[in-house]
């Protein structure tokens, strides 16, 4: 099922042109509209050994997205997803999926295509103990949309500590300082969590300075970077997609470099709660 949401409209000026002159397309979600859940959870706790999948799905716009999504997510325990676009195609795939339920943090609605929500999500068959989100303070230029971070906290079988899973689609066409601000916001939340953490997604680190700031903020939060093989998407020769962990053993990593379901290449990894 998809829980009902309300809508809102805003006004904006871009490069001196008022939105009264043309249709305003991207409508930022109000706080009451951010949370979107698709499907129903079946389990109460995660296993200690987990297969995790991380992917920016490019709004499902590639012809092979549906086929690749079903193939690549088979057998996974947790999906850490970015750039969802809940149109009819993606909605049908998720609603027909008997293996996962989805929590999404909505960034904006596409009013031109029928008020379609877009954002970042975490999927599992395990009911999170809590799910909460964080909106970037800064906005993308011109379209003025924020970027979202979603946090889901899960119980783990046989453990008195909970696993915090975080998905990010980081602010992109802005200065390194503004990206660092968003990452520090996230890091502050991660530092307060006393159990294991898995933090993955599209960090939009397309410069040396952005990479450096990312690593500093992740280290400040007590997270370690997962060493990943080649094949990930690059922009200006810099990787965009990363995974960071705390309190987890990393058993294997894989990049699905041959997949054409998105402009980004999916990451798969096996982890164990220590």
Q: What quaternary form is this?
A: single chain
Q: Assign an overall shape.
A: globular
Compute the CA-based radius of gyration.
Answer: 18 Å
Distance between the termini: 35 Å
Calculate the mean pLDDT score and round it. 92
Continuous helix count: 4
In N-to-C order, the SSE pattern is EEEEEHEHEEEEEHEHEEEEEE
Strand content: 35-45%
Query: Which stretches are low in confidence, meaning pLDDT under 50 for 5 or more residues running?
Result: 1-23
What is the helix content?
A: 10-25%
Which structural category do the helix and sheet elements fall into? alpha+beta
Largest β-sheet summary: 8 strands, mixed
How many β-strands, per DSSP?
18
Give the helices and strands, then pairings:
Blueprint: E1 13-14, E2 17-18, E3 26-28, E4 35-38, E5 49-56, H1 65-73, E6 78-85, H2 88-96, E7 101-110, E8 116-124, E9 130-135, E10 148-154, E11 163-169, H3 176-192, E12 197-202, H4 208-220, E13 224-225, E14 234-235, E15 238-239, E16 241-246, E17 248-255, E18 267-273
Parallel strand pairs: 5-6, 11-12
Antiparallel strand pairs: 1-2, 3-7, 4-7, 5-18, 6-8, 7-8, 9-10, 10-11, 12-16, 13-16, 14-15, 17-18
Helix pairs in contact: 3-4
Give a structural overview:
The two termini are 35 Å apart. The N terminus is likely disordered. The chain has four helices and 18 strands. It is globular, with a radius of gyration of 18 Å. The chain has 274 residues and is of the alpha+beta class. Helix 3 packs parallel to helix 4. The strands form four sheets. Strands 3, 4, 5, 6, 7, 8, 17 and 18 form an eight-stranded mixed beta sheet that branches. A six-stranded mixed beta sheet has the order 9-10-11-12-16-13, with helices on one face. A two-stranded antiparallel ribbon has the order 1-2.
């Amino acid at each position: 099922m998809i829980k009902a949401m309300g809508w809102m409209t805003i006004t904006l000026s871009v490069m001196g042109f008022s939105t009264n002159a043309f249709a305003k397309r991207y409508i930022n979600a109000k706080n009451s509209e951010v949370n979107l859940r698709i499907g129903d959870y079946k389990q109460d706790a995660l296993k200690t050994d987990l297969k995790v999948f991380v992917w920016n799905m490019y709004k499902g716009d590639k012809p092979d997205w549906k086929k690749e999504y079903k193939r690549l997510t088979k057998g996974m325990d947790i999906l850490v997803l970015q750039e969802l676009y809940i149109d009819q195609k993606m909605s049908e795939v998720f609603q027909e999926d008997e293996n996962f339920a989805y929590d999404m943090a909505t960034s904006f609605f596409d009013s031109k295509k029928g008020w379609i929500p877009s954002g970042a999500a975490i999927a599992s068959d395990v009911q999170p103990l809590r799910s909460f989100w964080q909106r970037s303070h800064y906005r993308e230029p011109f379209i003025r949309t924020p970027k979202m971070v979603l946090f889901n906290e899960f119980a783990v079988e046989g453990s008195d500590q909970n696993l915090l899973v975080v998905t990010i689609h980081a602010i992109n066409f802005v200065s390194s300082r503004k990206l660092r601000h968003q990452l520090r916001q996230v890091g502050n939340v991660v530092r307060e969590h006393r159990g294991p953490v898995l933090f993955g997604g599209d960090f939009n680190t397309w410069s040396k300075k952005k990479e450096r700031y990312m690593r500093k903020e992740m280290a400040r939060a007590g997270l370690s970077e997962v060493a990943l093989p080649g094949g990930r998407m690059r922009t200006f020769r810099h990787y965009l997609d990363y995974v960071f962990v705390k309190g987890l053993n990393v058993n294997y990593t894989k990049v699905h470099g041959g997949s054409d379901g998105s402009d980004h290449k999916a990451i798969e990894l096996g982890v164990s709660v220590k």
